[in-house]
C-alpha cells in the first residue's frame, strides 16, 4: 500500500506556529507504562504502520479531538524527507500534511528545487494528530509519536531530512537551542544528515527570510548530492 493513501475517519503540515520565537524547552519526556509504544513498530511495513497510527490512542486528548490522523504523504523511496511539527485544522479535516497556505508555499519551495510532493519527496510531522487550538506538541506526545516517525524514516531511507521550524528541529535534536543557532549546518539524526530551516507558516509572515530558507535548501541539496560541506556547515 502506498504510504500516502487517505486515512480512515477518526484518525490530521504543521499548522502556523511561527518559528524562531522564544519558547520553553520542548524536549521529549518519557511516558509511563500503559502509554509505551510497542517495540513491534520497528518491524511494521507501510500498510501495518499506517493502520497502527490510525488506531493509536496513546495520547487520549489528541485521540478524542482529532478528525483524522495525518500519517504522511509522498514518495516512499524519496531522497528528501521534510518533517513539520503537527497537523493544523485543515490537515486534520483532510488527513494530509501541509494542505493550507503553508503547504502551497512548501510546494513552491519544492518546485524551485525541481521536485514535487509526489516524486522524490516525503512529508511527515512530529505528531500524527492535531493538538487542540494548534498548540505546540507536548513533550510526552512527541515522545509517544516518535517510533512512528522513526519507522517512516527507516522505510523511506532518505538522503537528507529537513526539519521545518523550531518545534520539529528541537524535537528531533532533543535540544532547546533556538532555530537561528541550528540553521546553516548539516546536523545528524540517527545517521541521516539533517538540515534545519524555517516553517513555511513563518515565511508567510516574514517573507524577508525566504532567502535564508533557500540557502538552507541549497545546503540540504548538497547533502543529498554527497558534496562536502563548507567550513562551519557540518556538526
Secondary structure class reads alpha/beta
Number of helices: 9
SSE pattern: HHEEHHEHEHHEEHH
What value does the Rg take, in angstroms? Answer: 16 Å
Q: Mind summarizing the main beta sheet?
A: 6 strands, mixed
Helix amount: 25-40%
How would you describe the shape? globular
Taking the alpha carbons of the first and last residues, their distance comes to 37 Å
Q: In total, how many beta strands?
A: 6
Order of strands, widest sheet:
1-3-2-4-6-5
Mean pLDDT: 86
> What assembly state would you assign to the polypeptide chains in this entry?
single chain
Structure description:
With 235 residues, the protein is α/β, with parallel strands linked by helices. 36% of the residues lie in helices and 11% in strands. The chain contains 9 helices and 6 strands, in the order H-H-E-E-H-H-E-H-E-H-H-E-E-H-H. It has helices spanning 46-54, 60-65, 89-94, 101-112, 139-156, 166-173, 179-182, 200-205, 210-225, and strands spanning 73-74, 80-84, 121-125, 160-164, 187-189, 192-197. A 6-stranded mixed β-sheet has the order 1-3-2-4-6-5, sandwiched between helices. A hairpin with a 2-residue loop joins strand 5 and strand 6. The chain starts with 45 loop residues before the first helix and ends in a 10-residue tail after the last helix. The model is unreliable at 1-37 (pLDDT under 50).
Amino acid at each position: 500500500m502506498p504510504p500516502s493513501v487517505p486515512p480512515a475517519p477518526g484518525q490530521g503540515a504543521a499548522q502556523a506556529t511561527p518559528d524562531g520565537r522564544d519558547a520553553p524547552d520542548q524536549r521529549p519526556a518519557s511516558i509511563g507504562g500503559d502509554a509505551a509504544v510497542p517495540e513491534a513498530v520497528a518491524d511494521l511495513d507501510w500498510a501495518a504502520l499506517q493502520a497502527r497510527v490510525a488506531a493509536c490512542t496513546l495520547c487520549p486528548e489528541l485521540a478524542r479531538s482529532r478528525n483524522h490522523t495525518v500519517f504522511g504523504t509522498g514518495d516512499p523511496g524519496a531522497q528528501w524527507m521534510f518533517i513539520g511539527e503537527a497537523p493544523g485544522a485543515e490537515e486534520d479535516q483532510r488527513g494530509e500534511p501541509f494542505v493550507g497556505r503553508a503547504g502551497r508555499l512548501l510546494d513552491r519551495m519544492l518546485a524551485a528545487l525541481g521536485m514535487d510532493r509526489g516524486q522524490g519527496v516525503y512529508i511527515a510531522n512530529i505528531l500524527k494528530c492535531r493538538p487542540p487550538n494548534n498548540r505546540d506538541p507536548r513533550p510526552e506526545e512527541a515522545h509517544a509519536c516518535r517510533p512512528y516517525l522513526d519507522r517512516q524514516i527507516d522505510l523511506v531511507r532518505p538522503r537528507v531530512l529537513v526539519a521545518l521550524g523550531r518545534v520539529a528541529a528541537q524535537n528531533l535534536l532533543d535540544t532547546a537551542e533556538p532555530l537561528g543557532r541550528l540553521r546553516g549546518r548539516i546536523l545528524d539524526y540517527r545517521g541521516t544528515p539533517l538540515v534545519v530551516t524555517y516553517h513555511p507558516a513563518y515565511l508567510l509572515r516574514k517573507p524577508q527570510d525566504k532567502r535564508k530558507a533557500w540557502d538552507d535548501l541549497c545546503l540540504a541539496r548538497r547533502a543529498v548530492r554527497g558534496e562536502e560541506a563548507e567550513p562551519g556547515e557540518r556538526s
